[in-house]
Amino acid sequence: MASLRSLTGKYKNRKTYLGRGRDGDGKAFDIATDIPIEPPGLTPEDPGYADAKKEFERQALEHVNDVEARTRTNKANGSSKMTEEEFEARAKFRAKKVLGQNTKASFAAFIIAWLWEHVIRNRVDYTKTLAVCRLVRGLLAITKDAGCKTIHDVRQIHFDLLILRMQMASYAPSVVNNSVDYLKNLGRSIERATGNNVTSGLAKEATDYDERMPFTFAEVMQIFTTLPAVVGDKVREWTTFLLVMLYTEMRPVDAKDIKREHIIFQGEIGLIQVKSSKTAAFRRKEKWMPMHRSLQKHVRALLDAHSFKSGDFLLKHLHHMDEKSISNKFTELLGVADVDQLRNKPEDRIKEFSKKALYSMKHTSCAWLDAAGARDEEDEHDDSTPEAREHYRHSVVDDPHLLALMRRKVNLMPAVEVPVGTNSPA
Amino acid sequence: MNYTVIHDPTSENIGVLIEAAREVQPELETVIRLAFEAGIKTSIARHLGPEDVVGEQIAFQHPLSLGPTWRVLPESLLGYLQKLPKDRERFCPTLHAMTTWHFANAWRDVCQHAGFRVPMLSLIWPYEDTHKSTIKWERAMSYLEKVAAEWLTEVELEQLRANAKAWTFMGSKTGNRRRRLTRAQILAAHKANGTGLAA
Q: What is the model's pTM?
């Protein structure tokens, strides 16, 4: 009989169960399983935690027993004591046994239970709830017409038909794609219970969004050349503001609110704290990046000329302007600079590009950072737990080698050489 | 409709309006309290009755929602509603029978008696401001209830509701544990633990 490794010593940090078995010659071998030790989505305080944990342990033990049995051979004919078919059947039976209650339930009960659990546990917003409810209603209507009694009766064609109907009814591709995501999630639940992959035929449509084109380098230079004529004595603030957007990917609302404390210098290298108001709820962390030499020159001159205190805003006028006013002023600037603001629609796009505006500075920045290879892609790991967030936080502030590398990459972006202004920010 | 809010629905103003309602149209006190303390629109509150109160909750049909909305009543309001006569079908039979403009005129008379005018519309604003997330969550739940009532049997529905109580306490299925609990979920946890903070 195989057994499970006790979770002590070198196995105490394991996330999944590890089994131990002996083959026909009595030689011990380890059996790795993908059955988690801690029930996912549950904490020790949750009701049902103990039962779920026990159930996982039992499943793991059965699994390692089966794997061990597969390695034993009959001495008479040399074949395995457990055939592949039997092994598969036992695995399926195990799955059915675990979800015995669900498999007996009607399809409506199963799918609505999935819907409720999904909404309640994930605290889904009411607008999205309404959308998923409509989706579930559509699926239930199709399965009812097809005479499905339990989840074993539901087939891939039912899911395909629902999506096809949505596509035929001229729903936007993004709406259909969201539905595909929800149905795939439901499909995984059904597959766990029945072994049938009912959503394998669903695929997302190619889509694109309302986007802005970035400015060309020539247009950027034209903007900075025209700036003094439009903003008058605020040229220094505007120059700094636009350079911050251009070299940090910050949005206008964040770039106008930079404070003294968001700038630090480590020797000759200046760092700026990058803010993201749009994703603040998800990514609350301090993210510093080295300043491009063109930006650093302006910021350094600004700091030398004025004694800012820690909480002071560097752009005092712009900070007090609302985003709409700043945007309007910038549009006026684009008019004077004779920058093409027309919308255009390339042949293969579904939607046309929006006309160029202040926000295009951010898109320009994205394009430049991409070209320089300086995009920070670590954020993709940053949406699970505080521990994971801490684990993936590679701060350039603490690491001089990383800082030097980042700075070299940032400086690969095109340099906008604008003379440093001298007028007061106050 | 044009209206100007000169007087806010503050606790003091509501107190004065309730006093005026007792003299002009006593049934309006119920409507005012349901609107101010439970955030139920006056146009809905005037049609509610004892049968809509189940335990400490009241069920009503919000015009923007598909299913019934269940709202937890504050103790003071619950006590008040329980003291109202139970032999009637509605809490406010007179107001229930009124046409919209008669109802508006009744409110106008109360405001005239009180000496200032508070738009009926604004009575629910304090509740809405303080219970934004709870109201949204109630709407989400009303959609779920509607779908479940359409497709499930009574037994299945009861089983589902029993499971839903456990899901309320569980973390996110998708692993995003930083997603905040709603106000209703936080209060439900306190009520279950008997901490006394839920009141």
A: 0.53
CA-nearest residue of chain A to B154? Answer: A109
Chains A, B: CB contacts within 8 A come to: 101
A125 to chain B, any CB pair closer than 8 A? The answer is: yes
Taking only the tens place, the pLDDT of each residue in A115-159 is: 998 998 888 888 899 999 999 999 999 999 998 888 888 888 999
Cα-based distances in Å from A101 to A106, A110, A120 = 10, 10, 21
Contacts of A118 in chain B (CB under 8 A): 173
Is the CB of residue A109 less than 8 Å away from at least one CB of chain B?
A: yes
* A73: DSSP letter: B
Task: Mark yes or no for CB contact A384/B177 under 8 Å.
Answer: yes
- Nearest CA-CA distance, residue A103 and chain B, Å: 14
Residue A128 lies in a domain: yes
Q: Residues 6 or more apart from B67 whose CB is under 8 A from it? A: B142, B143, B144, B145, B146, B149
Structure tokens at A368: 């430049």
Chain B residues in contact with A105 (beta carbon < 8 A): 156
Name which of A52-61, A161-170, B63-72, B168-177 the model is least confident about.
B168-177
Pick the closest to residue B110 from B41, B27, B39 (CA basis): B27
pLDDT in tens, A15-45: 888 888 887 777 888 888 877 888 776 678 7
Q: How many domains does the structure of chain A reveal?
A: 3
A78 lies in which domain range? 3-98
Thinking of the domain B11-129, which architecture would CATH place it in? Orthogonal Bundle (1.10)
**Which ipTM was obtained for this model?**
0.80
